[in-house]
Write the structure tokens for this entry.
Amino acid sequence: MLTYTVRRLVLSVPTLLFIALVIFLLLELAPGDPMAQVPLTVPPEVKQQMREALGLGEPTHIRFGKWLYQFFVVEPSVWMDNTFGTALSEGKQRVISWQTRSPVMDIVVQRMPQTLWVVAMSYVVGILIALPIGIYSAYRQYSVFDQVGTFITMVGYSVPPFFSGVLVIVIFSVQLGWLPSIYDTTHQVVDWDSFIIQIKQMVMPVMVLALQTTAQISRFMRASMLDNLGQDYVRTARAKGLGESVVVLVHVLRNSMIPVVTVIALGVPQIFGGAIITEQIFKVNGLGQLLITAIQANDLPMVQTVTFMLAVLIVLFNIIADLLYGLLDPRIRYD
């Protein structure tokens, strides 16, 4: 498995480089000009100087090469300098946002906690709810629990976040007054009372996002369990006298988790991308809102960096999902 992991990591390098090139070229071909928001009173020669200061006067391949060097060499050097007190990045140009004139990675690090508080928590909650629902719905197929669960999950999968988000705000914030409608990104958790405030402002966005996660994963879990419950090895295990809980929770569940692992693993990069619509509704100042703002401002370095980071996560968790297959199914070998 170690050899397989190393081989996959090596093969992922040209894949990521190709993805980076595609993202860069797509942003180059996209309509819009970073100088479009500059006031009309600014003279053309000043605009030209501003374009050159942003590096827009250089050829495309030069700018792409500079971005690769900054992202893969300079930014890791900055991290090592901050961690170990070295000076590897001294005097080197980092990836700079055109909109804020600040290093892109510094802004990403600032926004990451808000995204993890809300989106990551909702994903974990959704998985913890979805797996038991899917397992029991399959075991008690066509029961009242299965029919109610199917109806709720289909509604959760069909209703868009911009509708469910506004609905919970109207019910729990406007009508009942239990929860705040706007997420306070400046709030800091320093004691128990501030932790309770943080939990209250997380409830509604987590509820909206967890509903979709639960709906998707529980359907996959139910379908996979039903497929395995009818297999010959299940009848054999029951004929040998194994307890029903052992048959379902050990033998059937382990084989059923193989396709579900793919769904869960591929959904993890969405955490770091943020829930764009939900963050807009609840004013969560996370990575999703950052990406939307950067697109609206034609901030190409920010869009390029954040989008490529999501691509890296997708490739990485694809590898993790493949490795988990071998742990769940002994028949899978990576020789």
Summary: The mean pLDDT is 80.
